[in-house]
């Protein structure tokens, strides 16, 4: 899919917004990124937050190290079919005996 482009208006309000954005951010987007990074560093608790995040990551990694053991499934014992076969043979023999009489 091709992304839909917004219609460009030559109105005064649109051009003023673009100019204001460019002047505040600098002529290049990289300058805008640099200014945003400086704002983060200026905050007094920023470094503390970073250290806390790193500590939390280390804690999570330690928890994941232990491997869970898989439970072994118990095998079901197969029922012997010999008994059923013997019963069937006895029934057949009885039926044959009854017919012969």
UniProtKB/TrEMBL annotation:
<feature type="compositionally biased region" description="Basic residues">
    <location>
        <begin position="56"/>
        <end position="93"/>
    </location>
</feature>
<feature type="compositionally biased region" description="Basic and acidic residues">
    <location>
        <begin position="1"/>
        <end position="20"/>
    </location>
</feature>
<feature type="compositionally biased region" description="Polar residues">
    <location>
        <begin position="24"/>
        <end position="33"/>
    </location>
</feature>
<feature type="region of interest" description="Disordered">
    <location>
        <begin position="1"/>
        <end position="101"/>
    </location>
</feature>
<protein>
    <submittedName>
        <fullName>Uncharacterized protein</fullName>
    </submittedName>
</protein>
């Amino acid at each position: 899919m091709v992304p839909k482009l917004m219609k460009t208006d030559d109105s005064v309000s649109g051009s003023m917004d673009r100019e204001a954005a460019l002047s505040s951010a600098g002529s290049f987007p990289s300058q805008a990124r640099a200014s945003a990074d400086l704002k983060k560093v200026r905050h007094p608790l920023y470094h503390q937050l970073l250290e806390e995040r790193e500590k939390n990551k280390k804690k999570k990694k330690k928890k994941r190290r232990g491997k869970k053991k898989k439970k072994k499934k118990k095998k079901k014992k197969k029922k012997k079919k010999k008994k059923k076969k013997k019963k069937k043979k006895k029934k057949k023999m009885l039926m044959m005996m009854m017919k012969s009489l």
